[in-house]
Amino acid sequence: xxPSQCDCSADRSNVDRRAFVKGLAAAAAIVLPGRSLQAxxxxxxxxxxxxxxxxxxxxRTLTDDQKKVLCLPFEHEKxxxxxxxxxxxxxxxxxxxxxxxxxxxxxARVVKGLCSEEGYARLTRQMDEDAGGLHEFSVAFFGQPGDxxxxxxxxxxxxxxxLRADGNTVDRAAFGGPIIYGHxxxxxxxxxxxxxxxxQQTDAVFRSLTAxxxxxxxVSQAPAEAAVQLQGEGGKFAxxxxxxxxxxxxxxxxxxxxxxxxxxxxxxxxxxxxxxxSSGGLDQLHMAFYSQGDLSGDxxxxxxxxxxxxxxxxxxxxxxxxxYINIGMKKA
Length: 332
Hints:
- The chain is an alpha+beta fold.
- It folds into two domains: 50-170, no CATH class; 187-327, no CATH class.
- It is built from nine helices and eleven strands.
- The chain has helices at 17-27, 50-61, 64-70, 101-113, 117-131, 196-207, 211-217, 247-261, 266-278, and strands spanning 71-72, 138-142, 153-158, 161-165, 179-183, 218-219, 240-241, 286-290, 303-308, 311-316, 321-327.
- Strands 1, 2, 3, 4, 5, 6, 7, 8, 9, 10 and 11 form an eleven-stranded mixed sheet that branches.
- Strand 10 and strand 11 form a beta hairpin.
- It is globular, with a radius of gyration of 19 Å.
- 46% of the residues are buried.
């Protein structure tokens, strides 16, 4: 992975609350590791999922000249790059002499297919406020969608966003690989960003800890935000291990995962939970809270991390939001 940084800013209010409540209600149905499971509950996306179907349709509209720019080999280095602010290919979707209106509509269908209803509303607002809209983002195709014998991946990138659609063809990787979201804010008050509700949920976990637990969970210096490589079973993780918490505290951690995953489509959420289960379950996750970057000096920690053998969710809320997510089974 090739990480890089971004610096940016803006004053925002909350996204539509009804959409958020709907998304959270859907997330509440997630069955977490350690609970009874129904047969076939965990199934990742497929080549015929809504987003992947739109990817294939979009690919088939490409001209030969467009393919020369947008289509890359599956193992191209750009598929492995992660950054909070970059363009995987040069033309943006709004480039009138390159993309057609139908291609832009199909790309919007891909993005919508990757999200829950609440997530799509929030993500659309994020793109509008941080970049000026979806037309300021770029796309690439790795491999060939529609070729049943080969893996493929669609990637959308731009300011504060990386999304992927792979039809579950990328081996042992939720979301097709690392994804990113973020949000600008001019006002140094953390609640001005549209993802602050996630920090409120992690803060509920922190405030449930005893003094001794809190001392172990609180770390002074955060790692680099893009340092989200999977460590596997032998990894060393900052903060406190969820397995050391009591039942009530573990329920708060369960709720945290539900809140974090609520913006995404059910198929990806199911794959995430299967990966967590296969890596020892909730008990093997760690939660770390970082004292640096406390925006209002209120000890509601604006930088936090949930990490385990197959799971990294790094949230940097100061000075504005960059979140890096990498969930999958570490390859030998």
